[in-house]
Amino acid sequence: MRQRAVTNSNDGVGRAAGRPPFEFDLRDEAGYARWREWKLSNRIRNDEQLVVRIENIESPSDTELAAIHACIERVNLVIYDTGGQLVDKPALRRFARRFGLERLDHNLCADEDAITTLSVSRAGRKGEYIPYTDRRLNWHTDGYYNPPGREIRAILMHCERQAAEGGESHLFDHELVYLLMRDENPDWVRALMAPDAMTIPPNVVDGREIRGAVTGPVFRVEPGGRLHMRYSARTRNVIWKDDPDVRAAVAWLQSLWRSGHPWIYHFRLMPGQGILCNNVLHSRSGFRDDPETGQTRKLYRARFHDGVRAIEGIVAEGAEDAVVE
Ligand SMILES: [Fe+2]
Predict the structure, then answer these.
(1) Beta bridge partners of 213
(2) Region 258-284 average pLDDT
(3) Cα(267) to centroid(ligand 1), Å
(4) Cα(321) to centroid of ligand 1, in Å?
(5) Which of 46, 64, 154, 189 could form a disulfide with 60 if both were Cys (CB 3.0 to 4.6 A apart)?
């Protein structure tokens, strides 16, 4: 492991020195060109390279932490693998703290400790929401329906049990989607940055409004230059701004999901493995539980208002050593 100073931007999200400064500004052509080259040459090319083995989740070594940071620095996500270690929710909470993840989001169906247990639910409110069924889950970022100020910047998802079949996660770095769209048509990116680009209608249960309508941008640059994405590919319950560029951008994203893209990662979490990410775009295939054999999918999910933060003195190992495509 190499030791070197890590610069921290205003929002506390660290940037290893290799990454050129760029704040996703559409007017900054030179900055974009430099960042684009860095981003493409540091892209992780296959699913297996996303996996970082950690010996003990309760006490990850500096080398393991650096490897995790390297992955996140490059593609905003990592798969950690405890080798089947049984992990409880307090241990996950402590693990998340190692990455500066403190502020948990309290969503509607979360358990009392704000970490959600994801499994098939046949009863109550949970069963009404797709994450608690065995159905396919369309492309989205988490918390796209959260009001401003409650953005989800990081997610930790830990697998305790696998389904008998299916339940594969698909993950796409939202910064790479920005890059692809900007190359295709920067006006689409501009349109999706508008503060009224996307509206989620109110959530009404039994005639009672439990969440008001939420309007906001898809791409938003946060103080400190971090890119946040708020998106759902659902065609119901999403109202898009009536604007030709918004419509074209949304259609382009839908075609991306239909045709697939080689930069999408596909991963079926094994027990003891988890995803840590800066709320990248993701979807999930349908799955089949088999209660007879005990193969019933069970995941823990924690959503954070914080983004993954660099650890002082730990450099994202390998971030400068990548092969240029
Ligand atoms: Fe999600």
Answers:
(1) none
(2) 97
(3) 14
(4) 32
(5) 64
